[in-house]
Amino acid sequence: MYLNKETVDATFHVIDGFAGDGSKVVFDYVYSSVLREENLYYGETEVYQLVKKENEPWCFGIEKGAIESFLEQRNLRLIENLNSEDLEKKFFTDEHGAVVGKINGTHCIAYARK
């Protein structure tokens, strides 16, 4: 999210060139709608304003539902994609099913294989 499109593409080009078949990569990203300030997710406005204020603006996002095509264009296959709800269920829900920590709705984690 902090890198521009050209740098993101260059980074994935290097991964494609140097990583062997079966290599894996994990990265976080935000939805493109966050950059458009659509305010669709929990905590979106606050975190977006904070990174702008700290002079660390976000400049790259991936459209919701487009992670598989994003990866395929870079010779990678999606293993798992976790959005904020998935992360809350997996890591921030107690044994009774209660959410004990709310995750900023703008962030996702992608896990992919070459």
Choose one word for the global shape: globular
User: How far do the termini sit from each other?
Assistant: 22 Å
Instruction: Compute the number of strand runs.
Output: 3
User: How many DSSP helices?
Assistant: 5
Query: Strand arrangement, largest sheet?
Result: 1-3-2
What is the alpha-carbon Rg in Å?
Answer: 15 Å
**Overall pLDDT confidence:** 95
Residue stretches low in confidence (pLDDT < 50, at least 5 long) are: none
Description:
This protein is of the alpha+beta class and 114 residues long. The protein has one domain (5-113). It is built from five helices and three strands; from the N terminus they run αβαααβαβ. The protein has helices at residues 5-18, 32-35, 44-53, 67-72, 84-91, and strands at 24-30, 77-82, 107-113. A three-stranded antiparallel beta sheet has the order 1-3-2. It is globular, with a radius of gyration of 15 Å. The mean pLDDT is 95.
Relevant terms:
3 strands, 114 residues, single chain, alpha+beta
SSE layout and pairing:
Layout: H1 5-18, E1 24-30, H2 32-35, H3 44-53, H4 67-72, E2 77-82, H5 84-91, E3 107-113
Antiparallel strand pairs: 1-3, 2-3
Quick overview:
By secondary structure, the chain is of the alpha+beta class.
